Amino acid sequence: MLTFRKSLVAAVVLITFVVLLRSAHSSPSAEPAVLNTEETVYDTSQAVDEPPTSQKEDVQQQPLRPPPTAPLRERLRYQFPYDLESRFPAYIWQTWKYTPASMWFAEDLRPAEASWTELHPGFVHEVIPDDTQRHLVKYLYGSVPEVFEAYDSMPLPVMKADFFRYLILLARGGIYSDIDTYALKPAADWLPRELDLARVGFVVGIEADPDRPDWHDWYSRRIQFCQWTIQSKPGHPILRDIVAYITEEALRMKKKGILKEGKMDKTIVEFTGPAAWTDAVFRYFNDPEYFSIEPGSTHNVTYEDFTNQQDFKKVGDVVVLPITSFSPGVGQMGAGDLDDPMAFVKHDFSEACHACGQAELYTPAPGPKRSSYGDLGKPIALRGSGSTTAPTKTRVH
C-alpha cells in the first residue's frame, strides 16, 4: 500500500520527467545571419598531414574501393571525393626552388610571398620547394600509382609545376597561386557576401579575352582561363579531369618513347598549360553528368558567355571572375587597374620565375603573348573553348 511520502516522491519524479521531455523537444532559437568571413568561409581546422578524405571514418555506408583495373577517373573520384557543401580549406599553396627560409630564396619574390601570409593570417601557407614536391605527390597519390609515374616522367620543370598545382588542389583543396603573385585582397572578399558558398566549389579567373580577328595568332584559345591563381574545394571534377587527362597523355607519350623535350607531339601549353586547363573547364561546363542538357541539344557554354565580362558569373558550382580579378593593370582586353574593386591578385611575371621556366612573360598588345611554354601554335578546335558560335545556355548567370 502506498504511503503519502511514496506518493509524493512518485509525483515529483513524474513531473520532472515530463518537464525534461518537453524541453528536449522545444524549438531552438533562431540564429543570427552570418556574413562570409575568413572564419565562416574557410575550414581552418585542417592540418597539412591530415589523411585523405576517403580515409576518414564516417558513419554512413562507404562505396567499395574500385579495383586497380577501374578507369582512372573512377579511382580518382573514390580517393578524392567532392563535397560541395564543405567549406573551402584554408590552405595557400605555392611552389619555388627553395623555401622562404632559405638564403637562396629570391629577394624580389619575398614581398609577393609575404602578401599572402599577411592577408590570410588564419591560413596554412606552404611554399613547396622542388625537392619536396616529388615526395608529396608520391604520398598523396600512392593509391593511384600511374599519376605519380606521369609526374615523375615529366621532362621539364615547367610541366611538373603545371601538373603539381592541379594535383595539390585535387587532393587538398584551397588556393594555389604562383610565387610571383601579390594578394591584393583576402580571399574572403573575392566573392559577394550574399553568395551561398555551400553552393560554390571552384573559383577561376579569366586570363585572356582577345576580342580581335587575329586572336589565334597570339593566344591558344579565344577565352583563356587563368591557372596562376585557382581556388577549389578538394575533389572538384574539373581537377579530376585535368589530372586524368595529363596522366593519360603523359603515359601515352612515354609508351611511344616521345615524352622528351623536343620530341612530344603536343606543345606544353596544350599538354599541361593554359590551353589544356581552359579545355578542362569548358568540358565541365558542357558535361551532361553535371548539368541538365536536353538530349540532342547542341546548345553549349562557349567563350561568348564570358567575353567582355566585368563582374563575376556563376556556372553551376563554379564562379568565373573577370579578367580584372587576377590580371589587373595589364592595360588591355578590358582589364581594370590595380585599385579596381574587382582586382584581387596581381601577377608580377617575375624575371626570376621566367628564368627557371615557371612563369609566362606578358607582352601587352599589339605584340604577341610570348611564353616559357614555347610557341603556342594554332588552336585546337574544341567544343566551347575556341571560336565556336553555338548558342549560350541559360544556366550561366
From TrEMBL:
GO terms for cellular component: mannan polymerase complex. Keywords: Glycosyltransferase, Golgi apparatus, Membrane, Signal, Signal-anchor, Transferase, Transmembrane, Transmembrane helix. GO terms for biological process: protein N-linked glycosylation. The keyword DNA-binding does not apply. GO terms for molecular function: alpha-1,6-mannosyltransferase activity. Residues 1-26 form the signal peptide. This is Alpha-1,6-mannosyltransferase subunit. The lineage of its organism: Eukaryota, Fungi, Dikarya, Ascomycota, Pezizomycotina.
